[in-house]
Amino acid sequence: MRALVVEDQAPVRNAIAKRLRASGHAVDEAADGATAESFIQSYTYDVWVLDRLLPDGDALLRLKGWRDRGVTTPALFLTAFDRVADRLSGFEVGADDYLVKPFDMEELLARLAAIARRGSVIRPSIIRIADLEVDVGRREVRRAGIALPLRNKEFVALQLLAERAGKVVSRDELIAGCWGEENQPASNAEEVIIASLRRKLGGPPLLRTVRGAGYILEAPDDKASS
């Protein structure tokens, strides 16, 4: 699953993210509500882990705003507030679960897996850009109906670019998506992946570099008008 961990205490946030990644999950981290908002506008998640008190306000208000906008991603509040009234206030604004600090990491993982399974996040199984098809479920890529053999990191990078088709994906975002925040690859690793993707995708070109910003995947007509 893909998780967003919103926690201002770096040791707690890092420990959760590290444990989730060790279990094979993709994780983004935010230390405040504004950063979480930016992530949520850019990506689709299977589950959120939300600390109650963030530097820029109570996460209850953030969650209420997301629910009012129709975002249904399952959310688990992780907080030191242990009163029944606190838990009820979380459920009233749309929380799916509530875990009080200090907590057991294995219990947290089990709860996240449970609410993610019953969540209502729907992702397209096939992403299409022009004649390119990225089959997320089967982890297959086709261009004009022809299967393209991609390495694991190449597929992960292409999926990230396809999910944000028409928008720039920064070098840091690409590296975090492919290697995670704690594993730093060789300095030109993402350039090697991008070059390989360009070669395998063929023409007309769909993938281009935005100098000083990152990379963008878009249909040829979109490129011509941008």
Could you explain how this protein is built, in words?
It is a single chain. With 226 residues, this protein is of the alpha/beta class. It is 42% helix and 23% strand. It has helices spanning 10-22, 33-42, 59-68, 84-92, 105-117, 152-163, 171-179, 189-201, 220-225; strands spanning 2-6, 26-30, 47-51, 53-54, 57-58, 75-79, 97-100, 126-129, 132-135, 140-143, 146-148, 207-210, 214-217. The strands form four sheets. It has a five-stranded parallel beta sheet with strand order 2-1-3-6-7, with helices on both faces. A four-stranded antiparallel beta sheet has the order 8-9-10-11, with helices on one face. The radius of gyration is 19 Å and the shape is elongated. It starts with a strand and ends with a helix.
Give a nutshell description of this structure.
With 226 residues, this protein is of the alpha/beta class. The chain is built from nine helices and 13 strands.
**Please, how many helices?**
9
Q: What is the terminal separation in angstroms?
A: 33 Å
* Mean of all residue-level pLDDT scores: 84
Please indicate the percent range of residues in DSSP E strands (runs of 2 or more): 15-25%
Shape field = elongated
Strand order of the largest sheet: 2-1-3-6-7
Order of helices and strands: EHEHEEEHEHEHEEEEHHHEEH
The helix/strand class is alpha/beta
Total strands: 13
Unreliable residue runs: none
Determine Rg (CA atoms, Å).
19 Å
Helix content: 40-55%
Biggest sheet details? 5 strands, parallel
